[in-house]
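Hi support team,

I've been running sequence recovery on a batch of backbones for a student project. Most finish fine, but this one hangs at about 90% for roughly twenty minutes before it completes. I'm not sure whether the input is malformed or the queue is just slow. I've pasted the structure tokens below so you can try to reproduce it. Let me know if you need the job ID as well.

Thanks,
M.K.
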């Protein structure tokens, strides 16, 4: 069964979506990200994937207060991402109620950081692997950062419990996920894998459900905001909803 993670990406205090991670290809979907998150929660979502895009691009956590408000207002479990650069960043996110913290750029630039975080907070983290083909992308997808499968090998050996894999070329394009590469990613690790990028239809969710035994979650953004399907329909498609 797939866990559905509706995405709430925050930039300049608003809920937005970017196309292929480009800061200059921004669509504002809601002036109030807390309201956007609340709509997903009201429709039955148990999890949210909340990204501080300002922090991802600049390294400065500007929207932490909004993520905390989302956690308090919705009661959802929140997977927090964007601009995690220090152990204090991780601990701050967990302290304000995030259920899981995704480490991206810092993991790729300094893999030993992930070992320190695992030792300090245990399995409440995931490593975000955003890639164009096999080339990893860092700092809001503005820098190349090594080989996808080398990273999978290194972090799996460390004991990372989950990867969030994003096909950057698919993100925000509503063209369907890269199922072939996703299966290769899942084959290359013993960790669980959350898919991100390209979901455009309920049929895509059903395909992901059958993709691989270790692919057990999917982040959905633009398809929800553009009205391709509803949260309730998506939850039904993945047999999700609140436990």
């Amino acid at each position: 069964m797939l866990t559905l993670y509706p995405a709430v990406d925050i930039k300049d205090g608003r809920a937005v979506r970017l196309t292929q991670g480009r800061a200059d290809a921004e669509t504002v979907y809601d002036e109030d990200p807390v309201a956007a998150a609340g709509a997903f929660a009201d429709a039955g979502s148990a999890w949210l994937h909340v990204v501080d895009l300002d922090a991802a691009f600049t390294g400065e956590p500007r929207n932490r207060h909004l993520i905390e408000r989302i956690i308090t207002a919705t009661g959802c479990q929140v997977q927090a991402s964007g601009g995690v650069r220090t152990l204090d960043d991780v601990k701050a996110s967990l302290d304000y109620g995030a259920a899981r913290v995704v480490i991206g750029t810092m993991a790729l630039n300094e893999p030993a950081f992930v070992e320190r975080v695992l030792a300090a907070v245990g399995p409440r983290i995931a490593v975000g692997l955003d890639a164009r083909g096999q080339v990893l992308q860092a700092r809001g997808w503005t820098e190349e950062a090594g080989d996808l499968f080398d990273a999978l090998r290194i972090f799996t050996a460390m004991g990372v419990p989950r990867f969030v894999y994003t096909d950057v070329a698919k993100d925000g394009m509503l063209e369907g996920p890269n199922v072939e590469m996703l299966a290769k990613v899942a084959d290359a690790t013993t960790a669980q894998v959350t898919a991100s990028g390209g979901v455009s239809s309920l049929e895509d969710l059903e395909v992901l459900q059958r993709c691989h035994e270790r692919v057990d979650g999917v982040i959905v953004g633009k398809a929800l905001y553009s009205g391709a399907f509803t949260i309730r329909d998506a939850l039904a498609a993945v047999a999700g909803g609140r436990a």
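--
Follow-up from support: It reproduced on our side and the slowdown came from queue contention, not your input. The first strand starts at residue 3 and ends at 11. No action needed from you.
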